[in-house]
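Morning!

As promised:
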Amino acid sequence: MSAIPTYTEQELVSLLKNRDNKAFGYLYDHYSGALYSIILQILNDSELANDVLQDVFINIWRKIESYDSTKGRLFTWMLNIARNASIDTLRSKTYQNDRKNQPMDNQGEDVLVALVTQVNVDNIGFRKVLKELKEDQRQLIDLAYFKGYTHEEIADMENLPLGTVKTRIRAALTQLRGFLK
Amino acid sequence: MNIKDYISSGIVQSYVLDQADPAERAEFERLCAQYPELIAERKAFEDALEKFALQHAVVPPRQVKDGFLEAIQNPSINQSKVITMEQHSNTPVRKNSGLRFMAAASVVLLIACGWFAYRFYDQSNELRAANKDLQTRLDSSEGTLNKIIDEQNLIKDKNVTVVNMVGSKATPESSANVFWDSASSAVYIMVKNMPRLPSSEQYQLWALIDGQPKSLGVFDSLQNNVILKMENTKKADAFAITIEQKGGTKSPTLEKMQSSGRTKAPL
């Protein structure tokens, strides 16, 4: 019995679907850092990111039955779960912050917590790659991928035709492929 | 369809990074079944993405793994997981009823919380209104008290002469007191009962000095029991009140004399 098991993706998925806890331990050890990175890039708050990462893995454990390998790789599926969970949290966080602008709340404390847990994410992962893009493309990718706005919402916000938004995002994503290689 | 053009449109990256809309996703999946090179392109991008993400991994704190492992080993922590595990349970009915009880209890709790939150909000609004009302009343009481204290001080002051203004024959019910401080020359009037005037008219107070009238200013009939500061006079043999046009006049209209009083008892 080897201390660090290795599986093919097919084996791993099959074990995961059988709720094999050891396989989930492996999944966590192998992928938690990659998912944590994307969560941090979206939330920019390590304390919130810890909670989201734990929820993401619990969700993976719960939803593994619905993973369909014909539609994409396991990592792609997990990445999208992590991204969606982060964006949901980001929205409820922004919502809460808006609510906290009421006079009776102790804003000072919140600002302090934010300072302590805030991390510099400009230089990690995809964010770093984004720097290679042109400013207008970077802005659109930030809104679409990291803030989770739909292309229609972005067209409204940026006062651009929907077609232009889609074309620019596509162009940026095509370039992204080159940067990742 | 030219599949090469389709691939180079960025659809693969859009699809993988969840940036494609439902129609685009459906089309992509349909075309994947048709063109193996499209699947190859998707897998290549997914591999690159995964490799890149693993290279840029950030190690999370240990407690997250502990929390995750604990959660999947003790599925009761998470209610939805209990549902999944029920199939393997020997006592599904009991677990289910427990779960239902918990669900019902949490709904009751939620409603109770909502009700309390609403009550507190309501109460706090009521208290705020009551507080404001009390503050207004306190301000008004303080104002009245200060006026009474001023009156008292005036009456007690030994330099102050109190002149009782007696109504004339035309208006016997008119009455007022004039307080004249001979040391500071200050003159105050306290209206006791003066008939209400039309808004175009006001009462005017006069000092009579060696038979000559001197205006000490005008006042309204409404200010019952309020001490009004009038203009100063060093000398006064008597005071008189007349009804004049609003704003007052230079010389009194004697036929409209309302009341008068001497500063000294007639010898």
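The longest strand of chain B covers residues 201-209.

Hope this helps with the figure draft.
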